[in-house]
Each structure stands twice: as structure tokens, then as C-alpha cells.
Amino acid sequence: MSLKCDIVKDLVALYHDGLASEVSEAAVEDHLKGCKSCRDYYKQYRLSAPVPINLNFASSGNYGELAKHMRVRRLWMLVSALAYVSASLCALIMLLMRMRRK
């Protein structure tokens, strides 16, 4: 299957992140072997694109790691909420004390 350069440039992000189908991946690799322009584009993309992070724990069957990730996230949300409430209460107390002095 011969792809046009515009289509390959659209597929580069999926190809780089490993999200392209096997057929698309093979077609992009085949095109990159024969097209210097697209090969240069892909090299430039690789340098500028962030490294993909694999948060797809469920598909790998690693439920313990997924549960740990969820617990840590929940803990940070709780800490953030408590910090917000504490700061709000401090501001309210300071405002009330200031109003009492006047």
C-alpha cells in the first residue's frame, strides 16, 4: 500500500506513540524507507514530541499498579481540598478579626 506524504504526516504521531494499527504501522514504515522528506519529518517529530507515558495499566493486567496510582491520586486530591479549606478558614478568621477591631 502506497501512502501519500500528507497521510503519513498525519499518522506520524500515532506511529510514534505506538497507537497505530499493525497495517498502518507497516505502511508508515514502508513509506519512511522510501521518502526522505517524510523520514526527516519523523526525525524532527521524534526530537520535539514528548515520550509517551504508559498509563494503560488495565490492558496489561497490572491491576495492583492501577490501584496504587488511583490511591495516590485520591490522596493528593484530598490533601489539596484540605489545604484549600484551611486557607479559606484562615482568611475568614482574619477578616472577622479585622472587622471586630473597627
Our count of helices gives 5
Quaternary structure annotation: single chain
Shape: elongated
Residue windows where pLDDT falls under 50 for at least 5 positions: none
End-to-end distance, in Å? 81 Å
Q: What is the share of helical residues?
A: over 70%
- Average of pLDDT: 86
Report on the biggest sheet.
none
CA-atom Rg in angstroms: 25 Å
Count of individual beta strands? 0
Order of helices and strands: HHHHH
How many domains make up the coordinates? Answer: 2
The class by helix and strand makeup works out as mainly alpha
Q: How much strand?
A: under 5%
InterPro entries: Anti_sigma_zinc_sf, Znf_put
Family: Belongs to the zinc-associated anti-sigma factor (ZAS) superfamily. Anti-sigma-W factor family.
Keywords: Membrane, Transmembrane, Transmembrane helix
Protein name: Anti-sigma-W factor RsiW
Short summary:
The protein is mainly α and 102 residues long. 80% of the residues lie in helices and 0% in strands.
Plain-language structure description:
It contains five helices and no strands. It has 102 residues and is mainly α. The chain folds into two domains: 5-48, no CATH class; 60-101. Helix 1 packs across helix 2 (22-34), helix 1 runs parallel beside helix 3 and helix 2 packs across helix 3. The longest helix is centred in the C-terminal third of the chain and has 39 residues, at 63-101. The protein is elongated. The termini are far apart. The model has no long low-confidence stretch (mean pLDDT 86).
